[in-house]
């Protein structure tokens, strides 16, 4: 039976760390959970980083099959935790067992998908330019390129995905797949869940015969995270959370003697554009599915549809009535932490008291602690544009509907919006011409464009982009979900005229896919 | 006949800009060249950026064949400038006609290579995950991914490659290939050369029927560059130059309301490790080829071998004698600008007067202005480690040889070195075991590893990496030379359940290579 001890996990073992730290809170009841989790001090951070650095060369040089099996081993070890994991996650997050079970499957599927990615070898980006000894005026040398891991990665998980975006979540899976050791700064909202998963990873590391330094899990306060990002042996950062915390990490990373990238996925309000024919033809269906999406799991998704644009008129009025009716049936749900709940109350309160915003609809109160009824607000395009704050994310079940006088006003609003993870089009066949006008505007501002769906529910696959221009993320050229997310943690190295016996194995044999003189082979 | 007017080039035309700016200097004679180049003011920057932004959607949406022919058109138009271009470049840079002719061919080959890249479509990174409507608990949507350009790119060319790293150099070619408009901040060391090439690009833009806003060339002082990097419609920066200027641009870009990446290729001393057997067996050949490489074109290459490690002993003493003899035959050459020459004199002077550094060899003085005899210095590993400044780049024909007591001391030195563009191994068959120990250390610190060659001479091909960990570049995950350099200016966008008629053409048909459910096709 897996035990939760509250210790920091470094070097394949557990130790008591520095000062006693925190206990987890059951957000539904407000009760404190055992045990106390100790905080890693600077010496712990240094030890974990040095072990990660020492493990890096052998881990990145490990056989691809061993690395793939390691990822599968992590998945199996997480499954081996059984209901213990779900029990603890439920107690720490207030999320439903159904949701957590789905999230666990997503997490293990994600690890197994990255195992396939490692084996397939596309990520190595192998390129071979054969020598041209007789070329004038200079011969061309033998040039071979592969991608290698950037080095040890610090991972800051998310509050709202205690499994899929946390200790063994997408950042960790992608970094491991790239051959990078990982040090996780544990999220204080679910430290016990994190520790259980941390033990599973430690077991998989040992089973795979990898150096223990490839993984560590440190709980701590802000200074622990700061020390980690500042450590010279950390070479990249994966972060999912608030804009404030993301910007703080970016500033710390940029101020290092050797600046490093921070992949911060920060904030997004995921605008939805309901085009006129769809609004008319599917008024109620769109209203109901919108409310279902915005209120799902307390609205605690980074892809929550927080902003809806539609053109004024009787169809919109009917839509608003349906929204009101649908929201009236939604209960408040306990939010992930008291702090998140307080921030939600502040955000909803600010909208409710805003002179240019109208409260369109509220859901029902609930019995849990840390729960506030979901809320949908209404404003118009001119008022929305006049106050930048109306475009800021309110994390939780809160959305703002923006009434546009004309479709052109909707297009202008799209041109002015900040970078987003997603944009959604609700459209019917008669809306295609307007959608075609919107599309290039959205492409410039978001990472994923959806039609006739809702942005919650992020597929972990090859063609997914969970990213987007700032402030949605720190760097729009990367995704934090899907197989392409491995690219965050890779850098290319070129080998010129190296003797055969010194070349990396993947560049010697021809088993893996590669570009030869620009032409794909294998 | 192409005319040099000194105007700023915006929107397909030329205009007089703001205040009169600079004239170019012939570094060999110190003579000022006609005409006066006017400086772009903030209004010019704004106009160029807005035109670029307005051109962006149609440029990035242009047919791949049109974009490829445009790149070929730029190459042909540069060739059309004939000797006029070489004459002006020779007058402005002091570089030899032979070198400039080779560089022009490299530049036009580079443009044509990117045309092939555009056509081949690998850069689009097309990925299709077909829908799984019956999957439980949720169906999988239709997901399709492509890469698009990031937006208008500001390019800051290099002093030392007036063609290949300047107005129509690698950054511009890669950005155009990615579908990004380009605004070049002209380099003050070769403004006339830049203007000639700028006219060639303008002609090619018009011939291809592309919007004139896809290209602009602005001369100016520091404030012009600052205004450009600060402009909200600029989305990326390509820079080649000094560490100080690169860091300044990075700071400006990071402080924007919307931070943007700066691809700064800044400084590198390109360490060479001469392993013991090679040192013994090829003493004179390595010494002579080293001196040829370090003194080539006044040593004004970012891949100049500025640092040489070798193990103490009689072989090294013989090597030093050969180096001394070889350098004694090398003449001083006019450097690119008086400023670069002064900086070289300062750098060489600091080494010459350093208490822990010995002057090993000097070349001959020359007749040109702005020329100082090349210099090679000697120190030992402990002294080198004791003063970080000894590891800083001296741009020009200056190198430092570091004598290591043992091969282990050489390895330790490698572990401590900063990020570099390249590292070179001089090795024979008997050195393989030592090289194997060095290799992982070098992989962590450099972008390209060479055996038995010299780092000057950067092939423009698929497997080239001209990049490396900080401070060699701002982001080790990218290269600024070779076809992979297009990735700097691309970001992924995912399309979920989009109606067929709204999908980008490249994601609709199946003519281009793509990953379908993770399996490569086409």
Automatic annotation (TrEMBL), chains A, B:
Residues 22-468 form the Aldehyde dehydrogenase domain. InterPro entries: Ald_DH/histidinol_DH, Ald_DH_C, Ald_DH_N, Aldehyde_DH_dom, Aldehyde_DH_Superfamily, ALDH_KGSADH. Keywords: Oxidoreductase. The keyword Oxidoreductase applies. The keyword Ion transport does not apply. Signal peptide: none annotated. GO terms for molecular function: oxidoreductase activity, acting on the aldehyde or oxo group of donors, NAD or NADP as acceptor. This is NADP-dependent aldehyde dehydrogenase. The lineage of its organism: Bacteria, Pseudomonadati, Pseudomonadota, Alphaproteobacteria, Hyphomicrobiales.
């Amino acid at each position: 039976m897996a035990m939760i001890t509250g210790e920091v996990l470094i070097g394949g073992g557990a130790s008591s760390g520095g000062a006693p730290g925190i206990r987890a809170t059951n957000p539904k009841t407000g009760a404190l959970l055992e045990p106390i989790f100790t905080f890693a001090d600077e010496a712990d951070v240094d030890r974990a980083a040095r072990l990660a650095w020492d493990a890096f060369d052998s881990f990145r040089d490990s056989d691809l099959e061993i690395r793939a099996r390691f990822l599968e081993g992590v998945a199996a070890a997480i499954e081996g935790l059984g209901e213990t994991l779900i029990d603890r996650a439920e107690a720490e997050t207030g999320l439903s067992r159904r949701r957590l079970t789905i999230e666990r499957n997503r997490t293990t599927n994600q690890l197994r998908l990255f195992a396939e990615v490692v084996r397939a070898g596309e990520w190595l980006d192998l390129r071979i330019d054969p020598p041209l000894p007789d070329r004038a005026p200079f011969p061309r040398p033998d040039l071979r390129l592969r991608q290698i891991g950037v080095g040890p990665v610090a991972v800051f998980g998310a509050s709202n995905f205690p499994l899929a975006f946390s200790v063994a979540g997408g950042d960790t899976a992608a970094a491991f797949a790239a051959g990078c050791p990982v040090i996780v700064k544990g999220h204080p909202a679910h430290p016990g869940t994190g520790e259980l998963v941390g033990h599973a990873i430690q077991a998989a590391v040992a089973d795979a015969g990898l150096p223990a330094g490839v993984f560590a899990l440190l709980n701590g306060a802000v200074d622990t995270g700061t020390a980690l990002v500042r450590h010279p042996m950390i070479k990249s950062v994966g972060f999912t959370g608030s804009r404030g915390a993301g910007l703080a990490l970016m500033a710390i990373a940029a101020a290092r003697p050797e600046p490093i990238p921070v992949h911060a996925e920060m904030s997004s309000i995921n605008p939805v554009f309901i085009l006129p024919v769809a609004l008319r033809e599917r008024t109620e269906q769109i209203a109901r599915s919108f409310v279902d999406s915005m209120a799902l799991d307390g609205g605690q998704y980074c892809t929550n549809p927080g902003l809806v644009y539609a053109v004024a008129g009787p169809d919109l009025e009917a839509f608003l009535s349906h929204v009101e009716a649908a929201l009236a049936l939604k209960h408040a749900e306990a939010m992930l932490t008291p702090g998140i709940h307080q921030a939600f109350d502040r955000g909803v309160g600010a909208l409710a008291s805003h002179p240019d915003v109208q409260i369109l609809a509220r859901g029902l109160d609930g019995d849990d602690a840390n729960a506030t009824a979901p809320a949908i607000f209404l404003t118009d395009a001119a008022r929305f544009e006049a106050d930048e704050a109306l475009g800021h994310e309110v994390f939780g079940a809160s959305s703002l509907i923006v009434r546009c006088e004309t479709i052109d006003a909707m297009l202008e609003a799209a041109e002015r919006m900040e970078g987003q993870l997603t944009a959604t089009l609700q459209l019917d066949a008669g809306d295609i011409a307007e959608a075609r006008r919107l599309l290039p505007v959205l492409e410039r501002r978001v990472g994923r464009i959806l039609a006739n769906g809702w942005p919650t529910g992020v597929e972990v696959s090859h063609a997914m982009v969970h990213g987007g221009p700032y402030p949605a993320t720190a760097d729009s050229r990367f995704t934090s979900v899907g197989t392409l997310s491995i690219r965050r943690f890779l850098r290319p190295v070129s080998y010129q005229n190296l003797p055969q016996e010194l070349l990396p194995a993947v560049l010697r044999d021809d088993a893996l896919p590669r570009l030869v003189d620009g032409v794909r082979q294998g």
